[in-house]
Amino acid sequence: MVREISRPGPGDLKLLGEYGVATVHEAQGRTGLMASYMRPIYRPANLFGSAITVLVPPGDNWMLHVAIEVCRPGDVLVVATSSPCEDGYFGDLLATSAMARGCRGLVIDAGVRDVRDLTQMGFPVWSKAVFAQGTVKATPGSVNVPIVCAGAAILPGDVIIADDDGVCVVPRARAADVLEKARAREANEESKRVRLAAGELGLDIYDMRAKLEQMGLRYE
User: What single DSSP character describes residue 144?
Assistant: First the structure.
């Protein structure tokens, strides 16, 4: 268990979180998305923070208790399993403990339970499954090591952005650069949004007509 990790600046975290998953994903070259099965347990939901990574054995949540000890305000628990598993690793008691340490939420490539309680608590979770099957505490794992969660490579301290569209990972070293690109992309989209609302067509805004003609589109 690695106790000390580097985290991105709180300003970068907050601003990236405000742009949302789709914008951040596009801004960093369409990379960083977790698998599409990672869904929020309630909606609307959004989350941003720095990753506390956890690698757990199948059916064993012991290391989640270990990980909560090193959580700081603004962190997000990101959990991968050493073998595929959908058991309910996390529920309202662990959420209560995590919230007391300032943890913002959970991203887990496995199952969770106590969904009604987690929803009432306002503790956001993105998971592969909702499953009441319990876990044991018998085998150690790892905390704050490189992991792969739902197809995305994550280092401790990387930026996690999650909302109703899914989960995106931004490498900590790229946070400032991706933020600038997200800001530029959002400004560009806002100008197009104004033009579309005024009645202009995407065909003209994106200069599509000539290319469509070259590709054989004919109006009759």
Answer: S
